[in-house]
Amino acid sequence: MSNTFKVFAVVGAGGAIGKPVLKSLLSSSATKVVVLTRPDSSSMFEPNPKLAVEKVKADDENAVAAVLQKHGVEVLISTIGFTGFESQVVLADAAKHAGVQLFVPSDFCGPTEGLTEGLLIVKEKVVGHAKEIGLPTLRVYNGLFTEHSHVVGAVEDTGKFLVPNPGDKPFSLTSLSDIGAFLAYTFTTLAPSQLLNTAFRIEGERLTFSELGAIYGELKSVPVEHVSKVPEGLPRGFILEYFWKDLNSGQCVSSYDLVQDKDLGTSALSNNLWAEYKWRSVRDVLSK
């Protein structure tokens, strides 16, 4: 094992978090970054001497393992979206088969270790499977993507930023570019032993729903309305209801420990692993 990881593979590199992760890795000291994409994918990637693109079905364990072995991948990073979470069990099996040293599943939300119910419980199941087969993992807890503030506020569907009452519990927000930059930096500067079977708890800022709504309304000139429930007829209303409940629980700060059922405090954040980095605030992101 080398002093730092050098060869990475990314699944879902054309998505919201996949793009900044790929961009940052290609700008880092990594020697090779392999993108695994579906055979029917139309995603295009700019040529780069470090980049290799392989078309493979994510549910074909042997095919994925062969690609990972071919390139000597050390770290497999999954950035796939909600509909693909279940397929990560196959990715984990393929990674183990190929001798990958670290699997980064698609967490990229609030803490999920210890989750026992809800839409995101599959994330806990994926990590549990990796543990069973002896595959080291690293989970990333970043709260809400700051760029997706309009989604939880239902702005596109209502023309307003909706704040679910009471809206007084803080949660973490982190920009996509900061997540990508932080992962590329830590993955290529920290010793592998510091990355195995752990979690990164990061945040750009923590706000309450009411505070986020006020900032969004000010910067985007959008009316803000406090509501007691998800308005009837909203597309994907049940998903919005789930996330409203989660974000109003106080458990969506990146430093929250579901197992101990308490906030470990900002001293538990991993931001200090890159002490000189300037994290973007919600205003920084939304004012662009």
UniProtKB/TrEMBL annotation:
Which key words tag this protein in UniProt? Answer: NADP, Oxidoreductase
Tell me which Pfam families the record gives: NmrA (PF05368)
Protease as a keyword?
no
The answer to keyword NADP applying to this record is: yes
Q: Name one GO molecular function term.
A: oxidoreductase activity
Start and end residues of each NmrA-like domain: 7-218
Q: What is this protein called?
A: NAD(P)-binding protein
Lineage, opening ranks: Eukaryota, Fungi, Dikarya, Basidiomycota, Agaricomycotina
